[in-house]
Amino acid sequence: MVIALNTMTVSAEAFVPGVVRQKLITEQRVKDTRVRIDRLTLAPGATLKLELSAKSLAWLHMLEGEAAMTAHNYTDPMSDRHSAFLPPGINTTLSTVKGTSFLYAEVPDVGGVDPGFATEPGLYTILDWTRELVFVCKQDARKRVALVSWELCRSKAMRVAMVIHPVGIAAPNYHHEGAETFIYVLSGQGAAWVDQRSIAVRQHDLIHIPDRTRYYLQAAANSGMRFLTLQVPGEFKTVWADPKAASAWRSTNLDINGFRTAADERERRIITL
């Protein structure tokens, strides 16, 4: 069943001192999901330790404010431009001076979605999406930036991308086979068409789309839209309702600001455990 909610309407609960949590995707809300998604908010001066077990991994994307993330004696600045992939067994600390909030997705049993993780556990990776390579759709002006992929993080457990739809633009109708999909709207508004039913979407909305459910997103006639897509696992098949309308993507060799210096490993924090 498709789940759609606005995260700002979900009640917050105390998590640890100085931190509140909104439970967005849980087993109670989405039966048989393999992902837990929260929105975590740190008060000014707060610190949060993220300690993953040897069989779980996570990804987070900063939504508001600024923070510092520390792991293995490295400390990196974090803002709403940053995402982090956290492989099994890693311990990190997030601290903030003025307060911050972020989206946090955890796979509690990574072996259930990526049987090969024991030999390829993934790389601790922090990246700035505005410095990453942009791909543009050949049929229209949609853009996408990879945030989690095998090439970036050496993990097949999940795939994450930043997607940008210009005003009025819609994707073709399609579905995935082998993965559940989560969409989080960062800015703008539009509609999610799911099994031919229209769901109005706006900033802070989160949508869960089950495996093999047809859908596509369309930006409003007066608004572009920027959103995150998360698939678990990260390997799946995409099936288009009309194969002739399938999206094709080409690299721009630029970042989102138009610079010909798309990020390489020197501009990311990458740690092999």
Low-pLDDT runs of 5+ residues are: none
Mean pLDDT: 94
CATH architecture descriptor text of the largest domain: Sandwich
Task: Calculate the terminal CA-CA distance, rounded to whole Å.
Answer: 37 Å
Attribute tags:
273 residues, mainly beta, Jelly Rolls, 2 domains, ten-stranded antiparallel β-sheet, eight-stranded antiparallel β-sheet, 24 strands, 1% helix
Summarize the structure.
This protein has 273 residues and is mainly β. The protein contains one helix and 24 strands. Strands 1, 13, 14, 15, 17, 18, 19, 20, 21 and 23 form a ten-stranded antiparallel sheet that branches.
Protein model, in words:
This protein has 273 residues and is mainly β. It folds into two domains: 121 residues, Jelly Rolls (Sandwich); 122 residues, Jelly Rolls (Sandwich). The strands form four sheets. Strands 1, 13, 14, 15, 17, 18, 19, 20, 21 and 23 form a ten-stranded antiparallel β-sheet that branches. A hairpin with a 2-residue loop joins strand 17 and strand 18. The model has no long low-confidence stretch (mean pLDDT 94).
SSE layout and pairing:
Layout: E1 3-6, E2 13-16, E3 19-25, E4 36-42, E5 47-51, E6 57-65, E7 67-71, E8 74-78, E9 82-86, E10 91-95, E11 100-107, E12 124-128, E13 135-137, E14 143-148, H1 150-153, E15 159-165, E16 174-177, E17 180-194, E18 197-202, E19 205-209, E20 215-219, E21 225-232, E22 237-240, E23 249-251, E24 269-271
Antiparallel strand pairs: 1-19, 2-3, 3-4, 4-11, 5-10, 6-9, 6-11, 7-8, 7-10, 9-12, 12-24, 13-14, 13-23, 14-15, 15-21, 16-22, 17-18, 17-19, 17-20, 17-21
